[in-house]
Amino acid sequence: GQVVYSIAEETERGASVGNVAKDLGIDAATLSARKFRMITGSSKQYFNINASTGALTVNEPIDREQLCELKSACFLNYELVLENPLELYRMEFKVLDINDNSPSFPLSEYHINVPEFLSPGARFTLPNAQDLDEGTNSVQNYTLSSDEHFDLEMQTRGDGSKYPELVLKKALDREQQAAHRLILTAKDGGEPPKSGDVPVIVTVLDTNDNAPAFEHSVYRASILENSPSGTLVVQVHATDLDEGPNGEIRYSFSNTTSADLQRMFLIHPHTGEVTVNGVLAVQRPLLEMLIEARDNGAFGMSSTAKLLVEITDVNNHGPEITITSLSSPIPEDAAPGTVIALLSILDKDPGENGKVTCQIPDNLPFQLKPSLENYYSLVTSGLLDRELIDEYNITITATDLGSPPITTQKTLWVQISDVNDNPPVFTANTSDVFVEENNPLGAFLYQVSASDPDMGENGRVSYTLRNSTIAGSPLASFLSVSSANGSIYANRAFDFEQLTSFYFQVEAKDNGSPALSAAITVNVYISDQNDNAPAILYPTSPNGSIAVEVVPRLADEDYLVTKVVAEDEDNAENAWLSYHLAQSSDSTLFRLSPHSGELRTTRSMRSTDFLKHKVVVVVRDHGDPPLSSTVTVGILLADTLPQVLPDFDDSGEPPPLLNATNIYLIVSLACVSFIFATFLFFLAIVRL
Which residue range or ranges hold the Cadherin domain (predicted)? Predict the structure, then answer.
């Protein structure tokens, strides 16, 4: 995008130049939102852009002569920078000259000494007028006030430049007129034309009739711009046919040579050697000076020659890198080709010394693309990943083509901003949790953890339970999870006998937009505790009575009386059962298998054995601590099943010999016997 405008100098403030939005094809309504700005190397802001309409107007009148001095073409360069997206347009303003300067002469008055003996046709150099305007607005012709002795003619130097000369057309007579006052007028070609005058005082001399003559009308020289002070530029030489002082020549710079050049160079008055005097701080590649040779006659005569000095550039300026615009941080999902920065790279040296190559390291996902003249765009060339690299230090290296080349470096710090491109990640897809039954409410069971390499809200993970059911009940009635740290708690006590295992899913979700999530499956295995005593299935004791088993009166040894059958709802060791005789009315008559629960006789039955017996069987599991249950079995020795079963509430053992009743009877019998014996003893005594 480039547009060129032409504007006349001294155009008044507020005058319309054009419409930037229309000329560049930009929507004027977006100028303000896209933060437009005009960039220029000029110290003044000559133009304004209306943010609403895009109208381009004059902000300050332009003085072309002040801005561009003696340049034939005068341009102002502006860059229009727009953001979102970043765009650069170049605007070039050609400043047109108007005839606003009159020709002027360096001095207010010029003096020429003319020997009276000179013949008609003698010529004298007149001063050149200066006009800051260009083209037809500059000096076009000269005129001389009417005089019978003098005329004006224009001469051309070897380089094509013209200058006025005063020509003697009639011999002078100092005794009749010692001085002639002439008016030299310079006119330009403007509309209307402007002019400038200078008095030329001609003094008639009657000696020294030869002026010095240079060997060349134009001298040319070439020097390096970094030449030290004292470097010889050129040596001019003029000759004077006169003898003595009238033929001695002194060299000097003409008054029309600018003061800057006269300070920059020195000319030896006697040898004509022109040398460097200080630093050659000029931007123009060609310098023009006029050298005057004047003799030492009483009325010194002079002539001039032009000296053209070409300044040969040396590579003494390094490239200058300017960051015009920089977008940082940039999102990690920026597409390849996204513009990050706009760079201006300039080298003040002309020619090859001012040409610049620019590069950045190859191992970066960025590249430099040339934009407009002297501008480069830094764009992404690959995919970015903040989780791998969150910032880049991009070193821009600019090298000119001089010999030796000069290199300049500048480092840009570009940060990468995070986007939510990574879901939470668990260390495994599943996890196994073992929980003992009868756990307390709110007991901590397990903690899941997921990581998210994103930062900020994009990396903040929260945890939830995915909806599901366990044994027909909602998952929330069994478990809860902390959304902050993934800790899982029990909402109820688990019962191994009802539920041995189940699984559920925990979802980890980040706080990005849109949110990303992942899930882990948790398998819960409930461990058994010894919380159930063995349940005796057989024999049963209806209504709390004793179970009765009938055994033949003369049963043989190892006769199966009954088999105690029990079960335990616990698992593994907690359900391993063993059988033990806790009590037996006759320990020698029955035995119990500890593993099968079979109650058998240890010997054959005898007729002297009691008819009924009672045994207490203990069924015990192997839990820690163990739990047990008991059953009481009544055993009746009978060959047939009686219609009415006897009462087994007593012990079923023969009564002891010395119970309370027997003792009472024995004591009573003893007392009677004692009384009877005493009576017999008394009778015996009586008889004797």
Answer: 6-105, 106-214, 215-321, 322-426, 427-536, 561-648
Host domain of residue 432: 425-527
546-564 confidence digits (pLDDT tens): 888 888 888 888 999 899 9
Which of 47, 42, 45, 49 is closest to 19 using CA atoms?
49
Total structural domains in the chain? 6
**Amino acid residing at 292:** E
- Dihedrals phi, psi of 147, to nearest 5 degrees: -155, 140
188 in the same domain as 124: yes
682 occurs within a structural domain: no
User: How far is the C-alpha of 398 from the C-alpha of 410, rounded, in Å?
Assistant: 9
pLDDT in tens, 166-198: 999 998 887 788 899 999 999 988 888 888 999
Nearest Cα to Cα of residue 43 among 63, 28, 15, 25: 63
Question: Could you read off the pLDDT of 255-283 as tens digits, one per residue?
Answer: 888 888 888 899 999 999 999 998 876 66
Tell me the residue type at 651: S
CA 87/CA 377 separation, integer angstroms: 10
CA angle 511, 515, 517 (to 5 degrees): 100
Size of the chain in residues = 688
Task: From 263, 293, 312, give the residue that closes a domain.
Answer: 312
Integer Cα distance of 588 and 43 in angstroms: 128
Residue 485 has a pLDDT of 92
Average pLDDT in the chain: 86
C-alpha 497/C-alpha 572 separation (Å) is: 12
Query: Has this prediction a pTM greater than 0.85?
Result: no
Angstrom CA distances, 143 to 150, 151, 163, 485, stand at 12, 9, 12, 101
